[in-house]
Design goal:
Pathway: Hormone biosynthesis; Plant hormone biosynthesis; gibberellin biosynthesis. By secondary structure, this protein is α+β, with helices and mostly antiparallel strands. Helix content is 32%, strand content 18%. It is globular and about 55 Å long. The chain binds ligand L2PXNNRO, 2-oxoglutaric acid and fe (ii) ion. The ligand C=C1C[C@]23C[C@H]1CC[C@H]2[C@]1(C)CCC[C@@](C)(C(=O)O)[C@H]1[C@@H]3C(=O)O binds next to strand 5, strand 6 and helix 11.
C-alpha cells in the first residue's frame, strides 16, 4: 500500500485513539495529486471553512512597541488602553516597531522552506513521539483518528534558563545532525528574540491590567516555551479540511509571524474574521494560561487556519509559557476586580501541557475541560 494511503476503514479503530500500532503517513507531495482527500482530513459540515465568502477583517490595533519602550507617558498610556480593550474583547492585537531584525525573521522563513522541503524520511529523523510535544509531525496521523489538520509542524522547546542556553540549537544538532547547525542557530536566535519581545509585552500587559510593569515580566522571566513551525501544503479540496482546527492556545501568549499568504481566522461576535498578513508586524494573542492568570479578565480566543489550493503557507508561532513548576494563580488585585471570585483553580503549566498532550486535544474548551479534570481528581 503506498505510504500515503490510509488503512482500510474497517481496520481503523472506531473511537478517537492513537495509531500506535497502525500509523499511516501524511505526505502532501503524494496526496495533493489525488482528486479527493482521505476522509480523515474531512472536517464536519459545521466546522468546514466557507472559502467562497470574503471574511470581515478583525480590527487588531497595531501597538507601536517602540513608543511604549521609550517610556513616553502618553504613548505608554495609549498603548496600555489599546491592549486592554483588545484583550478584554478577543485577546488579539499586533505589535509593530518591535525591534526584531527583519533579516532574522526572513532567515527563519527561509529555514522553514529548507526544512519542510526535505524528503519525508529526512524530516522523520525528528519524528515527534506520541505524548511528547517536540519534534516533527505530519498532520498528527499518529495522534488523532479524525479531523486531521492539513499541515506539517516542527515544535522545539526553548528555555530562558541560563543553564539551558542553547537548547534549541542543541536539539537540531542532536536530532538532525551537524549539517543543521546553521538552521539550529537561526531558530535559537529567533527564540531568544521572541523571549525578549514576550517580556516587553508582559510589561505592557501588567500596565494594562494596572498591576505594574514587573509582575508578569518576573513571572515569565524564566520561561519554558515552544517554538512551532507550521507548514501548510496546498490542498486540492481546501474547503473540506483545515490547516489548524478551531482552538484556543493553551499556552500563555502567542507571538505569530505569518507569511503573506493569509489563512489565520479568529472567531469573534459569533463569526470568523481574517487577520491580514503584515510582514512588519507580529500577531499576538492571549492563551488559556494567561487568561487564568488574569482571572478571566483577558480572553483566550478561538482561532483556526485555513488552507488553499495553490500556495503553501507558513507561520512561525512562539508559545510563551512559564517555568514548568510555576503555579498559575492570579495576583490578588485581579481577584478583587472580579467580584472576589476565582475563575480557575491553581495549576502548573507542566500539568496543563501534559493534559493537552496525553488526555485532551486542544479545542475551544480546553481550559474548562482541564479545570474539571483537576476537580475530578485527574480522571
Ligand atoms: C501546548 C500546545 C499544544 C499545541 C501547540 C501548543 C499551543 C497550541 C496547541 C495547538 C496548536 C492547538 C490546536 C491543536 C494542536 C494539536 C495543533 O493543531 O497543533 C495543538 C498543539 C499540539 O498539541 O501539538
Ligand atoms: O498558522 C496560523 O496562522 C495559526 C496557527 C495556530 O493557531 C497555532 O499554531 O496555534
Ligand atoms: Fe493557535
Amino acid at each position: 500500500m503506498p505510504p500515503f494511503l490510509l488503512p482500510s476503514p474497517s481496520r481503523l479503530p472506531k473511537k478517537e485513539t492513537n495509531f500506535r500500532n497502525n500509523p499511516f503517513i501524511f505526505d502532501a507531495s503524494f496526496l495533493q495529486n489525488e482528486t479527493s482527500i482521505p476522509q480523515q482530513f474531512m472536517w464536519p459540515e459545521d466546522e468546514k471553512p466557507h472559502l467562497d465568502l470574503p471574511l470581515p477583517q478583525l480590527r487588531v490595533p497595531p501597538i507601536d512597541l517602540n513608543d511604549f519602550l521609550t517610556g513616553d507617558s502618553l504613548a505608554v498610556c495609549n498603548a496600555a488602553q489599546l491592549v486592554d480593550a483588545a484583550c478584554r474583547e478577543h485577546g488579539f492585537f499586533q505589535v509593530v516597531n518591535h525591534g526584531i531584525d527583519q533579516r532574522l525573521i526572513n532567515e527563519a522563513h527561509k529555514i522553514m522552506d529548507l526544512f519542510f522541503g526535505m524528503p519525508l524520511l529526512e524530516k522523520q529523523k525528528a519524528q515527534r513521539k506520541v505524548g511528547e510535544y517536540c519534534g516533527y509531525a505530519s498532520s498528527f496521523t499518529n495522534r488523532f483518528s479524525s479531523k486531521l489538520p492539513w499541515k506539517e509542524t516542527l515544535s522545539v522547546r526553548y528555555s530562558a534558563d541560563p543553564l539551558s542556553s542553547n537548547l534549541v540549537q542543541d536539539y537540531f544538532l542532536k536530532v538532525m545532525g551537524e549539517d543543521f547547525s546553521y538552521l539550529g542557530r537561526v531558530c535559537q536566535e529567533y527564540c531568544e528574540a521572541m523571549s525578549k519581545l514576550s517580556l516587553s509585552i508582559m510589561e505592557l500587559l501588567g500596565m494594562s491590567l494596572g498591576i505594574g510593569q514587573s509582575y508578569f515580566r518576573d513571572f515569565y522571566e524564566e520561561n519554558d516555551s515552544i517554538m512551532r513551525l507550521n507548514y501548510y501544503p496546498p490542498c486540492q479540496k481546501p474547503d473540506q479540511t483545515l490547516g489548524t482546527g478551531p482552538h484556543c492556545d493553551p499556552t500563555s501568549l502567542t507571538i505569530l509571524h505569518q507569511d503573506n499568504v493569509g489563512g489565520l481566522e479568529v472567531f469573534v461576535d459569533e463569526k470568523w474574521h481574517s487577520i491580514a498578513p503584515c510582514s512588519e508586524a507580529f500577531v499576538v494573542n492571549i492563551g488559556d494560561t494567561f487568561m487564568a492568570l488574569s482571572n478571566g479578565l483577558y480572553k483566550s480566543c478561538l482561532h483556526r487556519a485555513v488552507v488553499n489550493n495553490h500556495t503553501p503557507r507558513k507561520s512561525l508561532a512562539f508559545f510563551l509559557s512559564p517555568r514548568m513548576d510555576k503555579v498559575v494563580c492570579p495576583p490578588k488585585p485581579l481577584v478583587e476586580d472580579v467580584d472576589k471570585q476565582r475563575r480557575y483553580p491553581d495549576f502548573t503549566w507542566s500539568t496543563f501541557l501534559e493534559f493537552t498532550q496525553k488526555h485532551y486535544r486542544a479545542d475551544k474548551n480546553t481550559l474548562d475541560a482541564f479545570s474539571n479534570w483537576l476537580k475530578n481528581g485527574r480522571k
